[in-house]
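We modelled the chain as a single entity of 475 amino acids. Its sequence is:
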Amino acid sequence: MSDDTLGAVKPSVSVARRLDRLPVLPTHRRITTVVGIGLLFDMYENNLSGTLSQVLRADFALSATDVKLVLASVFLGQFFGAILMGRLADRFGRRRAFLINLGIYSFFSLAGAFAPSVGWLIATRFLAGIGIGAEQTLSDSYLADVLPARHRGRLMAWAYTLGYCGVPAVGLMAMWLVPLEPLGVAGWRWLFALGAAGSAVVWVWRRGLFESPRWLAAVGRREEAEVLTARLEAEARQLGKLPAETTGRETAYAVREAPESLNAVPDAGSARPGGPLLRQLFSARYRRRTVMSWLFCLLSTVGYYGFGTLAPLVLTAKGYDIVQGLGFTAAAFIGYPVGALLAVPLMDRVERRSLVALAACAMALAGLGFAFAGSPGMVIACGFVYTLVSNVFSTASHVFLAEQYPTPIRAQASGTAYSLSKLTAAALPFVLLPVLEHGGPGMLFAAIAAAMAVLAVTVFLLADRTTGLPVDATG
């Protein structure tokens, strides 16, 4: 390659473009695994209160209002956590926010294991929720930052496949431990303690993660971003997956081999409007995607958490006892990791907005089947199908939402949208439980199906294409 060739192109290439043209490296797989295991304990915590709702009602002699408060408290905490930690991540870095949020929910989940009263339980679930609420949006932002554009969807789907293993895990652990009292301690308390212990281990692993080079470049810390990006490029060259001459300079290789979209995106930061976050979100550039994202998050919770939180209560309404209900729920919850695994080959082959909308429609149909199922076999089958398609939906949704905004505001913008889903989740017990009590499972899932239909129409009409595009090009 001649000097004339080098001189004919730009003297430098952005960190964002260099990250996007990398192949999948062992470092990318290691990051995906560490983030995925963190998501596993997040999913475990997210489903803990709903799975144990009937057990807690009996142990603490809870009233109907108390049950709603226990279910709502963790989601209300998540509402604040998604907003606060998203802002922290955009201002001080993804890695630091990761460690803070994980420490918060590990500590307060352990505190919940020692709850002497329902008031203590509600308070600790609220405080744990502050950390839990940030986990998924921070994971989405970090992975969107560091993974190459052409492989982003598939690798994020793998992270969520690991994560969703936490859902059947909490169901199976509850089925095993709830009837027992190991060392004289109620089984449900062990479930809280085990979640806290696992989160503490993940916290240690996460200390080894590096900061997002894309975020460092976007906030002006260019030298640090260059060092980390060069390290990834060196790893690719050692594996023979990147030509030895490819460096921070814009080479003929980069112009010739990288897709046009990758060569068109500068480091984020200068191309966005300034000022308060809400002013940016509702500027002409982002207004449509903000309306879409907010409606999407408000409605998606009705379908996703509506089933996960209320399934044990639906089974009780159908006449099954607590142990039977936990067994059926655990069996149905196996669909969570299976659905996320199914999303892996689909993620970078099917346009994200289409995958999200079609999965939402499938959830509506499977939910109606679950509501009207008349035998244990049909209950488990419809529940399994529901959780399977809901996790194709959820996995695609996390990737899709992380692609809506540029790096400098990604965590807080997506966190703000995501926080609305937690606000809806906190309201769900107060809205949907009366529907279940007065209208039965059929009316409950009819309401859920209507919400998912509106969501599908919203995505089809307002969302843009994001699959395979550089993450800052989509913002």
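As a brief sanity check on the tokenised model: The chain has 20 helices and no strands. Residues 17-214+276-462 form a domain with the Growth Hormone; Chain: A; fold (CATH 1.20.1250.20).
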